[in-house]
Amino acid sequence: MKIKNIFENKIIKVALGIFLVTASFYAGIYVNAKNLLPTIHNLPSGYAPASILNKDESKNAKVDFGDFWKVWKLLDQKFVYTGTSTDSGVVVRERVYGAIKGMTDSLGDPYTVFLTPEENIDLETELSGSLEGVGMEVGMKEGLIVVVAPLKNSPAEKAGVLAGDTIVKIGDKSTEGLNVMSAVKLIRGKKGTSVTITFVRNGEKEPVITTIIRDVINIPIVETEFNKTEKTFIIKVNSFSSNVAELFRVALKDFVFSGEKKLIIDLRNNPGGYLDASVDMASWFLPRGKVVVIEDFGGIKKNDDYRSAGYDIFKNSNIKIVILINGGSASASEILAGALREYKIATLVGETTFGKGSVQELVPISDDGAALKVTIARWLTPMGISISKAGLKPDFEVKMTAEDIKAKKDPQLLKAFEVLNQL
How far is CA 79 from the centre of its chain? Predict the structure, then answer.
């Protein structure tokens, strides 16, 4: 079979490519450790009026800081600190951090945030894949904390949490006014401890109150299944981790050697991950040089096009592909699904995706570990459509209800079988 030989010839190239790719580019976060911003030094101890360092950092900016310094001095003169800490240096540091947080919050972008040293450590832990908690990706839509997706086999999924649930209370604390990082800090905790979360769910008249026992989160990255009745091979991709491209290659090899012609790629409840993984995975289906995704910098600099490596092993074959998506499909999932649909490689079935189409750069700020996570660009499909505006709408919309999940029914998968049989 010709396609098998082509596949075998591509294996070495892909393995080498994966080995050489650095682990610094995520579909959501770009970590920049070389081009550091000027360090903001800690202010000296002493709660009396503090001397200001780096006061004129932006000399060319026409910004009047008069009100800021007036408030700073008034706090020095009038505020009586009633906390338990006697470390005035810590108090001053928190005032600086608070001012920076206020500046980033004023932009109205939930993904542009200032991270304290402690929050930065938490983010690094999460990106490394080693974490304890309830196992769900959260984001912000229209000022509300929402569940992007519960992770596969996580405590959150087992407790019945659904993609699209709005979190209105964590324990006794309302989420009104909270940013994503603050919400995550309240939800996350040690294995064996519990957290009670109140959700507002579509279709439910009353809030859903759920107590979840935290655990170590272990995510199966790629799962495969062969449906004998429908003669269809299914590849379920749960996240775009650092090794997903290699695992996807192995799964595709199993599909090729099965001899079947119908493939379902299940990206439901996949919150995304590494950008290079989504580009690599798209390369199995696209000719060399085809644009997979466009990084749009909003006119600040020239856009970057991320292009297929051109493995294109299914060229001239008659395989049929359906991609399953839902409201928990975000970021890298949307990149892969959007590209394969626009090149007419795959048909999308399910529900509209989350719409996480922005790029963040993580920039170290100070010697103590504080950092700025700032939105620097947005993702566009090959046809130039913004993923962030409304997500990706499926070609065939099929809702999945809470009742379907409880009854272990999957109308979206059944529709995928039907579509494949009609292609």
Answer: 41
